[in-house]
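In practice, a research group might receive sequence data for several interacting partners and want a quick structural hypothesis before committing to experiments. The following worked case mirrors that situation: the sequences arrive first, and a predicted assembly follows.
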Amino acid sequence: MPTRRDILAGAPVLGVAALGIAAFGSSRAHAGDTKAADTKSTASAAPATGPFTLAALPFNDTELAPFISQNTLSFHYGKHHAKYVSKLNELYVGNEALGTTTEAIAKATYGDKDHVPLYNNAAQAWNHTFFWNSLRKGGGGVPMSGKLSDAMKTAFVDADGFKKALREAATGQFGSGWAWLVSNGGKLSCVKTANADSPLWTGAGTPLLCIDVWEHSYYLDYQDKRFDYVNAFLDHLANWEFAEKNYG
Ligand SMILES: [Fe+2]
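A structural hypothesis for the assembly, expressed as tokens:
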């Protein structure tokens, strides 16, 4: 039987599809979906041309509107995420010894100047699957009770304190990157990362929730108003069920 850690890392046979969706078992997720044809999304998806496949979106591609439109998803998921996965399959040839999961490859190549393209595509494949699972229709706000809620009160005092911290991380990231709610031994904080980096391998903490702040994630819906996109995530999309499972 695979351990939770094995599933989190993504079994080779499932590739990136195992990450996040199978691992965290959201009721909205399709555990183990590996075929683009199975996705609820109508967005185009990259054909599986290697061991890594594009995970199905854990929601219908129309149900996050108006906060994230079907049009944005058709590019963000159907083009950008799909391209990271297909490029990863291309670059993986000859580099199989570096790992069999996106997480393992990203960890093995982080900071390695000889494997920058492989790192970027493996890391972005992992980050995007984590991001899709960080979203849900009718999300947002903060958890009202439970272990994560208690930890959030300790770290941020109240909902406004949390929103301010994540908003500062997300809007303070210069250029492309990500903002994350992370746990360090149970202690919570909000951090930002540049480009394809994730706290999971930079050492900044265990990711609980993230928001993609690359321009491709919001420009069609919000143009240059990253602040408004981040607020939409905070008020309407943040998937606390997913965060709670990650907090353990
Ligand atoms: Fe993205």
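Before designing any experiment, note the following. The chain has two domains: 4-133, 147-247. The pocket of fe (ii) ion is lined by residues 76, 80, 128, 212, 214, 216-217 (CB under 6 Å).
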